[in-house]
């Protein structure tokens, strides 16, 4: 894999993190709240904290991968993705069966991060 290919792969993963942060906030009172309500989280204060924390984590990891790519950052991204996937799986296991793949997309993202981890200095 060339350095250009590696950069393209990294920027694709960065896009996912930054877009997820933006969409989580854009849909704060829409899909974000609805997703938590479907999982039984109806306290608006708790839901607000969870959405803001998730979006903040996505933003920080996305920016860190864009600005300071390193094995440590990629491992952090992979760990965060695995944790969020586990939480989402517990809150709403039907997300694994969604036709647009909100959780299944994490499998190729994990593979991309693994490649970046192995190639990082």
Automatic annotation (TrEMBL):
Parts of the chain that traverse the membrane: 7-26, 46-66, 73-91, 97-117
Keywords: Membrane, Transmembrane, Transmembrane helix
Superkingdom of the source species: Bacteria
Name of the featured protein: DoxX-like family protein
Species of the source: Pseudoxanthomonas wuyuanensis
């Amino acid at each position: 894999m060339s350095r250009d290919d590696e950069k393209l792969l990294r920027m694709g993963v960065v896009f996912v993190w930054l877009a997820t942060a933006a969409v989580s906030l854009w849909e704060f009172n829409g899909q974000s709240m609805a997703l938590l309500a479907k999982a039984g989280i109806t306290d608006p204060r708790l839901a607000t904290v969870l959405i803001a924390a998730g979006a903040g984590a996505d933003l920080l990891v996305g920016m860190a991968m864009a600005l300071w790519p390193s094995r440590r950052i990629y491992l952090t991204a992979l760990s965060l993705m695995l944790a969020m996937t586990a939480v989402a799986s517990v809150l709403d296991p039907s997300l694994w069966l969604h036709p647009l793949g909100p959780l299944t997309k994490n499998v190729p993202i994990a593979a991309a991060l693994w490649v970046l981890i192995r190639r990082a200095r």
